[in-house]
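Q: Is it fine to ask for two folds in a single conversation?
A: Yes, each is treated on its own. Send the first.
Q: Here.
A: Result:
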Amino acid sequence: MKHLYSRWQRYKIEQAMTTRRVVLLIGARQCGKTTLAKQLITRDIAYLNLDDTTLRAAAENDPQNFVKHNLKTLIIDEIQRAPSLLPAIKKVVDEETRPGQYLLTGSANIQALPSTQESLAGRVSKVRLRPLTQGEIKGSLPDFLTHAFSQSFNFPWTFYEKDAIIEMAFRGGFPEVLTLEGRNQKKWHRDYLEALLERDLQDVAKIHRYDAMRELIKVLAAWSSKFLDTSSISSSLSIHRPTVASYINALEALYIVEKVLPWTKTDYGRVGKQSKLFMTDSGLMCSILSWNKDQIRFDSDRLEKLMETFIFNELASQIDASEKDYELYHYRDRVKREIDFLIEREDQAILGIEVKSSSSIQKKDFNHLEWFQENLAKGKLFVGIVLYSGNRPLSFGQNLWAIPISMLWPSGSLST
């Protein structure tokens, strides 16, 4: 029997449905959008899935009648398959301004679709759903950032050894993968990518060289957690730079890769301006690269890439689910001072996070966090954290902490 996990974003959807005419649930295919949408169905809510070819044909041929309803809410799944419905929905919600009329789901960014002429701006609330986080799997609430900013680390949590965390990262968060092992995980991920290339990619871009796209996906998986350099990527693949950029944009639109912008809110002249690139599921990355868990344990470079990609997705999910407004950045300057993640709160308080796979931490691991605190965070609350695979939170100076990765998931906060 399929296990139904409590998704952090359910509350956000339910809240948005009380205030906005249209709610758009977006995220990668197979991350759980349909399951979550169906959990919201009641007697006065109907569900239509545009993966059904007959329904899609009806939607494309008579969009006005397709979207008409006298229910509380109409759920339309995979809206990117029939973007012609968007103007029809706009017409309905402009005539009737009641909130909660439509819940749409999309496995592609509808604003990136070449055939989309309507964005529903001002009428729609977007909610991002990512693959399952370890917090959702373990039944925790997305509270880590609140604890981190307040430096209150006395909450209950369960310690996981480094090998257990590596296992979590290798598995990733696609729900169907959670029950699979070894080769079956890799096969699922590869079949998933093939389905994207053969079907979903056509919704967002005109791709003429599918062989080049396959090679690019492998390169981008290897590039995860690195600074994006399209010139180097285009040279390695012998593909024109504009083509590489457009292909990356298409993969972004399908929520397979994601860019993290640099933090540049300073007059410091040496701050870097390159974005970082991440795969949006660490398990998918491992399968694309044909990584072996036993080899990774003894390869520090690949282990750091794995852990940083894994932590990125955990942090991004907590940011998405939070009731507070957070922005996620990275920091790098021209003298190669780097901080893996900077999370800025709406009051301009900043949380700096470095990711280490080691179970031991030294004072030098805080050098860049400490420099940022002293030079670029003057007058602001700055908390610097090194996430590591150890088993206890430790203070390393004023607002500087070594925090176990396991503490990302407080114990027993949410029933599954």
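Q: Second one now.
A: Result:
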Amino acid sequence: MLNKFKIAFLILFLSGSAVFAQQIQMPQASPSAKISQRVGLTDVTVDYSRPSAKGRKIFGELVPYGQVWRTGANSATTLSFSTDVTIGGKLVPAGSYALYTIPGKSDWTIVLSKNTQLWGAIGYNDKDDFHRFTVSSGKASKKFETFEISFNNITDNSSDLSLSWENTRVEFTISSEVDPIVMADIKKLVIDAQTTDPGLLYQAANYYYTNRKDMNQAYTWIKESTDKDPKYWTVHLRAKVELALGMKTEAYNSAMKSKDLAKEANNPDYVALNERLIKTLK
């Protein structure tokens, strides 16, 4: 009889536990978000949660001035870099960092912490800071009901990371080393290897032209590339390099050839590009 009672109790206990283990799916008050951006040759990822104002006054009240803020909600916001970057004038090694901020009326302190395991700012210790610097805050171009982190003003080697909420916008620049890496690849794959590959020669010439390096070397590479395998985009680059070197007749002929190749390939964009270039050469 006792054993039957124990069995019945165990069944009741387990069934009750199963009921309590079930959860109702509900939307998060501050939904999680993850954004990534290629900055130069670096992958930058932000993992954060997005609280909404919901009629509340944010900075100076919900988020007090002069106090460490998690820069979002829930767990600490994290910034991850696949290679070394420069932020606030300091080299930041590849890895993950917690992004804390200390809002002020006109200036914010940006903090990169080595401790990424905290819930918000609870337990924050400035001894874990890897880097901190100050930026000016500004007025957002529109009102942001929900906190937003975004990448803006992206160049070949940098991007601004913008923090926007309510009527406030704060941003700082993330820079990635590009030129030394690209030049090392060009040396290895093009110069040292003495490549004859038209694609590699075009890439090297294009980088030299775009970054205003040795134009004579750029011409040597693009001439070899287009002599072996002329494409409308490679011949167009040849025309631009020739123009940069003052070779107007050669540039005109290359632009005309690129235009014809673009027509054959049914690429109206390059036809138009060449027509504009040709006008400057007449």
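Q: Anything structural to flag on that second result?
A: Two points. The beta strands are 32-39, 42-49, 78-81, 85-87, 90-92, 95-102, 107-113, 129-152, 158-176. The chain has a mean pLDDT of 93.
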